[in-house]
Amino acid sequence: MAPLHLNPSGPIRHDARLGCARWLPMDAVAHEKSSGIANVFVTAVPALLFGVRLTAAVSLALFTAFYLELDAPYWAGTSAAIVCQPVVGSSLLKGVYRLVGTLVGTIAALALTAVFPQERAGFLFAMLLWAAACSFVSTLLKNFAAYGAMLAGYTLIIIASSVIPQPDQIFQIAMNRASEISIGIASGTLVIALTSLGDSPQRLEMLLSELIEETARHFEGILAEPWSAAGPEKRRMLIKRTADLIPVIDQAAGESPEIMQRRAILRVAVDGLFAAISGARIVETHLRGLPSDEANHIAAEIADVLPPEWSPGAALYRDFDAALVRKFMAIKTNDVSWRLAADASAEVATGLEAAANGLALLRDPRTARDAVRMPNVIVADYLPALVNAIRVFIGVGIAVLFWIVTQWPAGLYAVMFSGITIMLLSPLLDLSSKAALGQVVGTLIAAVVAGLLKFTVLINHETFLALSLILSLALVPIGALSVVPLFAPVFIPATVNFMPLFAPTNVMTFDPQNYLNTALGLVAGCVAGGIALVLIPHPSPAHRAQRLVDLSIRDLRRLAAGRRRWTFTQWQGRIYSRLAALPEEADPVQRSRLVSTLPVGVQLIRLRPLSKHGRIGAEIRDFSDALAAGDLPRVRHILKVLDKEIASIPESEPGVRGRMRARAMLLAVAEAVARSTDFFGSQPT
Amino acid sequence: MSFVEINILGVLISPLVPLMALAFAITMILRVIAVELGLARRVWHPALFEFSVFLIVLSATVVIFGHLKIYH
Predict the structure, then answer these.
(1) Does A194 touch chain B (CB under 8 A)?
(2) Alpha-carbon dihedral of residues A419, A425, A430, A431, nearest 10 degrees?
(3) pLDDT tens-digit profile of B4-42?
(4) Mean pLDDT score of chain A, rounded to an integer?
């Protein structure tokens, strides 16, 4: 789906950074009035070209399906329309996942028919379970993999809807539907891939370099003014924009084989940006807790280590950041406060070094160092996935019951499109009800346009060329409007639903009554899907945010109690996934609490090796247990005792720097806990 | 050179399907090699290049399997 950038206060412009058209603010309008016609031209041409490509993809799919004499060639056209995306990477990768999803859905259809022969109730119940399971998995997965799972769900519904009237033809129908859908995917992917070079790697490079520079500036801003109220807001924006990089990485991987093969580097780069933001927060928390003189002194000391050209551009280079890490780590001090600030600053530089390595992959792949990152599917929260699955089961189930009770001939269309609407729109979370409205309006527009063209223009023509030209009359403008962000929610569904309504077949039948029944079934399915989305809503953003915070403190307590042995990377991945899932509307307190669990967990994992030996080890175990129990007075007491004990070890004993680091870690935990006492001190449930 | 459909539990599947899967797997291996050798970054249009390589591999696979008469 085209990225939505809604700001309907000005005209549409093509934005190279976003890779699509967008609305400009009004102040930009005044500035650009003089060149208005040129701007309209610049915006309209790429949009119309997309419409032409969409028509070409649909026509190619239809031609192939007609040539192979498949019984419902419009499914090939529909599939091609769904695969066509304005961003090239989206199409290539989406096409592959869609093929896999279609194959899995077809196998499921065959298996269910074999398990429930001549038993319609069992088959329909199993179909609902399968669709709900696919929706569940699709919500848990990310980006195009999620799309593949979704496809496995509604391919089964599409096949089942065709099979139910003639169950003895299951194998033939399943093979035909799978072939039609696969032809559509191949055609859409081919046309989009061959007619555009794509610019996702360039967009990713631009976004990543901006984020590296802004994170470096954010850190410098903290050092210049630790008490500034703008710091937390800037951090919130950086976290959100860093999380938004993930789909762009997938798009870039879809366009470049090298990025696809080495995309672990980019994932590590995103983790690095999160780590840098977290390190900057530790410095900020520490400086805010100090008397102003001392805080200014430490901030000035750190700022002195930073090279003057760091934030204006040097941070983009891995070697500069690596040198900075070494400088911070090499600092020798007996001041635990200074040690903490230096270590946290080293974390910022380490994170930016990883991000700069990702940038090197995009700018000059030869210089990028390969990174190892095990694929690790971490689920931020299972609740939204569960709600989506329940909604699919109940929503499609009611549509099935309605069809059985009323024996409505077009009821199967309603079943099919209620399933597609619910599954397709559920991942949009809070926007899904509005998107469902767009789906209904778009389908109505498509029904009117398809009806007019079919019964007034197509009726007099027989050749495939004429069919393609007639299709272009609808698909070029609808496709062009679908890339305009303001109209996308209405015209993307219109492009998808136009083909099943127009329904060209090898022997065309022009039966207005049948057309109206089909259109009514399709619109009714979209309306039923929309109603299900409204009546079984997603958990509210505030509730989702609170759950993410609660799950994180629960995990932290498990980690502290030793019930979970997560590694450093696993813990970071867990919290990063929750930060990325945090709704934009989340309360700043919730956001701050979630971020604060990250350094506490990290320090607990770093302290783990020390907890195995001697008296200090026993104290660290006590401290972990007290933290797990939410007993903050005891935590504070043990931290003080521990700090004194470690400080009392004579300097002549080996391991001075290690001891200083351990004290800095304990101080970081103490400060994070002190900042949110009611959160860390709440009773475990 | 002729092919017959593959019968899997009574479902007839085009012989091209496994050949396409095989060609896709070979293309993926070639892509890994191209990236490792640095050839991939010299390509102007990666999607067009990959599609062309896939077609060449698929054609070669069809010819080879046709001569081996595996599907007769």
Answers:
(1) yes
(2) -130
(3) 888 877 777 778 888 888 998 999 999 989 988 888 888
(4) 84
Tokens of A246: 């993930």
Token pair 């996308």 is at which residue?
Answer: A488
Euclidean distance between CA atoms A186 and A65, whole angstroms: 12
The pair of three-digit structure tokens given for residue A383, joined into one six-digit string:
């609740």
In this predicted complex, what is the ipTM? 0.76
Q: Cα separation of A557 and A555, whole Å?
A: 5
pLDDT band, very low/low/confident/very high, at A429 (cuts 50, 70, 90): confident
In angstroms, rounded to a whole number, what is the distance separating the alpha carbons of residues A481 and B67?
51
Between strands B6-8 and A20-23, the pairing is: unpaired
All residues of chain B having their beta carbon less than 8 Å from the beta carbon of residue A365 are 38, 41
CB atoms within 10 A of CB A132: 24
Q: What DSSP character marks residue A228?
A: -
Name the residue among B46, B24, B20 with its Cα closest to residue B35.
B46
Query: Is the sign of the CA dihedral B30, B33, B39, B41 positive or negative?
Result: positive
User: Given a cut of 90, is residue A133 above it in pLDDT?
Assistant: yes
Residue whose token pair is 């961003």: A87
**CB of A181 closer than 8 Å to CB of A75:** yes
Q: Which residues on adjacent β-strands are paired with residue A434? A: none
Cα–Cα distance for residue pair A616/A573, rounded to 1 Å? 29
Structure tokens, A621: 């175990």
Q: B2: pLDDT confidence band, cut at 50, 70 and 90?
A: low
C-alpha to C-alpha distance for A442 and A453, rounded to whole angstroms: 16
Partners of residue B6 on adjacent β-strands: B13
Q: If you count residue pairs, one on A and one on B, with CB atoms under 8 Å apart, how many are there?
A: 37
Query: How many Å apart are CA B2 and CA B22, to the nearest integer?
Result: 18
Mutate to test the interface with A, among B20, B37, B45, B52 (most CBs of A within 10 A): B45
- Establish how many alpha carbons lie within 13 A of residue A527's alpha carbon, considering only the half-sphere containing its beta carbon: 8
| Contact present, A303 and A220 (Cβ < 8 Å) | yes
A88 touches chain B (CB under 8 A): yes
Q: Where are the alpha helices (DSSP H) in A536-613?
A: 541-561, 568-581, 588-607
- Nearest by CB: B50 against A88, A257, A365: A257
Task: Name the DSSP class of A456.
Answer: I
Parse chain B into domains and list their residue ranges. 6-68
Contact A88, A254 (CB under 8 A): yes
Within 8 A of B46 by CB-CB distance, chain A residues are 255-257
Is A88 in Cβ contact with B35 (below 8 Å)? no
> How far are the Cα atoms of A410, A437, B35, B51 from residue B26, in angstroms, in the given order?
45, 45, 14, 13
pTM: 0.79
Instruction: Tell which A residues from 104 to 133 touch B, by Cβ distance under 8 Å.
Output: 110
Rounded to an integer, the average pLDDT of A507-535 is: 89
Decide: A79 and A110 in contact? Cβ < 8 Å.
Answer: no
Element (H, E) at A47: helix A36-67
* Secondary structure (H, E, C), A471-533: HHHHHHHHHHHHCCCCCHHHHHHHHHHHHHHHCCCCCCCCCHHHHHHHHHHHHHHHHHHHHHH
Structure tokens at A579: 């930060």
- Taking the CA atoms of residue A467, residue A472, residue A474 and residue A476 in that order, the dihedral angle to the nearest 10 degrees is 170
Q: Please list every residue in chain B whose beta carbon sits closer than 8 Å to the beta carbon of residue A261.
A: 31-32, 35
Please choose, from the candidates B2, B11, B17, the residue with its C-alpha nearest in 3D space to the C-alpha of residue A186.
B17
DSSP state of A583: -
